[in-house]
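Q: Given only this backbone (329 positions), what sequence would you predict?
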């Protein structure tokens, strides 16, 4: 950067003096177009169940879903993400409930798609909401077997596409699944179903509240370090993204969010593909509890979301979507 001259001729505070001037020189902004709203669904009727570890976030029974989608549409949120709270009685070692066309996600897709087509619906592809051990795939000698898992993920993707899912989002971190899912979708007439790859997903300590929300926390045996990424690494994320782009991903996700802004930036600097960021459950709960306890002002939410835009994210999955969309003009 060229020298910008010096004080007293240069006074950087001049541009900050008035509100209109600050607006004029503002480099980034957040709009409702940037938001993806994750929604937890469960069985039952007329239920809005609080989640202890995520204040202000609820599990909703399926009869609430139309109302929620309507709210998202009214607030101009372009996409929602569905996450199921599967009853323990329906979990087993192979997560077979994932392939049940009457599971929670499939039912929700049918309800939504019967009525709405002006909003995107994204569904995770992974087995952890359905396995009794809480891992994202099929275990073989206590190790998640890549190729066996991918064969099931392909079926899960096809089922979701059939039910009307717009964006298939593999969050499992198996190798090679994007290409194989793309191939299967194309072969079955789903050429325009999009794939959002959780290409860069770290084995993070910030997922705890989510695992509580989908009911996999208590059951999870061990950790996910032999498939999710090591958080000491950054260049490895470039290989993950390159691989998924070559296999046909339409967008890539970086997850978690705020502790990984450096990763969003290097991906944005190296590839032209749309990059989404996931402000995960642990990040949400820390900020939300800080606000509830009056340690933080509620504008901390906006500030946290702008940090993703500054780093280069095109959109953000955030549990604050509903709340912040109401405040954005
Ligand atoms: C499951 C999945 C996880 C999240 C989204 N999809 C948890 C995990 O990998 O254990 C985390 C989201 C969050 O913490 O908000 N594959």
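A: Predicted residues:
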């Amino acid at each position: 950067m060229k020298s910008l001259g010096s004080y007293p001729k240069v006074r950087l505070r001049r541009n900050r003096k008035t509100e209109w001037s600050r607006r004029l020189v503002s480099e980034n902004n957040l709009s409702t177009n940037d938001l993806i709203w994750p929604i937890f669904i469960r069985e039952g009727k007329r239920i809005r169940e609080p989640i202890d570890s995520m204040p202000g976030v609820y599990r909703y029974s399926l009869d609430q879903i139309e109302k929620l989608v309507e709210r998202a549409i009214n607030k101009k949120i372009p996409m929602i993400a569905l996450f199921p709270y599967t009853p323990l009685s329906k979990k087993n070692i192979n997560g077979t409930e994932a392939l049940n066309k009457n599971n929670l996600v499939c039912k929700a897709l049918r309800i939504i798609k019967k009525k709405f087509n002006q909003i995107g619906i994204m569904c995770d592809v992974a087995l952890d909401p359905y396995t009794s051990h809480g891992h994202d795939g099929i275990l073989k000698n206590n190790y998640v077997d890549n190729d066996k898992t991918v064969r099931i993920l392909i079926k899960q993707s096809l089922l979701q596409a059939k039910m009307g899912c717009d964006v298939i989002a593999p969050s499992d971190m198996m190798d090679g699944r994007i290409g194989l899912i793309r191939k299967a979708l194309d072969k079955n007439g789903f050429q325009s179903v999009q794939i959002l790859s959780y290409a860069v997903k770290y084995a993070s300590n910030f997922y705890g509240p989510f695992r509580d929300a989908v009911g996999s926390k208590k059951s999870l045996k061990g950790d996910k370090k032999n498939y999710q990424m090591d958080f000491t690494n950054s260049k490895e994320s470039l290989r993950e993204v390159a691989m998924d782009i070559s296999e046909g991903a339409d967008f890539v996700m970086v997850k978690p969010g705020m502790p990984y802004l450096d990763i969003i930036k290097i991906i944005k600097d190296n590839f032209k593909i749309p990059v989404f960021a996931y402000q995960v459950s642990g990040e949400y709960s820390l900020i939300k509890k800080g606000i509830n306890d009056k340690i933080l002002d509620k504008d901390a939410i906006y500030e946290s979301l702008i940090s993703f835009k500054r780093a280069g994210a095109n959109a953000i999955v955030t549990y604050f979507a509903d709340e912040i969309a109401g405040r954005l003009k």
